[in-house]
Amino acid sequence: MIRLQNQPIDYQALTEQVRTSRCGAVVLFLGTVRELTEGRRTVALDYEAYTGMAEKKLAEIEAETRQRWPVGEIALAHRLGHLELGDVSVAVAVSCPHRHQAFDAARFAIDRVKEIVPIWKKENWDDGSTEWVHPGEKVSGEL
Amino acid sequence: VELNASATVGDLRRWLETAYPALAALLAKSSLAVDEEFADERRSLRHGAVVAVIPPVSGG
Questions:
Q1: Which of A9, A40, A94, B12 stands 20 to 30 A from A33 (CA)?
Q2: For residue range B32-50, what is the model confidence (pLDDT) as tens digits?
Q3: What is the mean pLDDT of residues A125-133?
């Protein structure tokens, strides 16, 4: 299950959604809005997506993760819009038969989200300035 | 945008650099997506293709 949403992410419901008696391990990862980045103070973040492609890429990540690990269920949710400090921006919930698989699968999925999904955040710094964040290199989409 | 019939993604990138010099620095770091899929510079463009400039992403 993948989802882009403007409403807060209900990560408890997401976690329940991936629980299954076939799996003995559930891992939930949450990304939350952090106040300090290299000494600068954030007051809020704004997220925007190239929506259709972002949904496509999230679905690809679900498929890639299922290919590599014996995933029971997986849920990927990313929030868009205006987020305050501490808000949940992204959630990955994965169930697998065993814990090491579930940890590795969740790690893989969140790392891929940060690599290939066309979503961008704008920093709102405490001095009133704003800045779109473009941290990395070109996105190729290849593993 | 109008390019010749054999134009590639790379040709469009060079066209954008010329048409929007202010974009050049970000464009150099950006990927191009054709019809919602990341595209190689050598890929040829069909008439009516939807191309998006994808700056380095910062989701999560």
A1: A94
A2: 999 999 999 999 999 999 9
A3: 95
Residue pair A2/A59 in contact (Cβ under 8 Å)? The answer is: yes
The pTM (predicted TM-score) of the whole model is: 0.94
A136 pLDDT above the threshold of 80: no
| ipTM summary value | 0.92
| A99-107 long-range Cβ contacts below 8 angstroms, 24+ apart | A99/A24, A99/A25, A99/A27, A101/A25, A101/A69, A101/A70, A102/A23, A102/A25, A102/A26, A102/A27, A102/A69, A103/A25, A103/A27, A104/A69, A105/A27, A105/A65, A105/A68, A105/A69, A105/A71, A105/A74, A106/A27, A106/A28, A106/A29, A107/A29
CA-nearest residue of chain A to B33?
Answer: A53
Q: Which residues of B touch A53 (CB under 8 A)?
A: 33, 36-37, 52
Instruction: Give alpha helix (H) positions in chain B.
Output: 9-19, 24-29
Q: Between A and B, how many residue pairs show a Cβ–Cβ distance under 8 A? A: 76
Q: Which of A114, A132, A140 sits opposite B60 (nearest CB)?
A: A114
**Would you state the structure tokens that stand for residue A129, as one six-digit string?**
């300035």
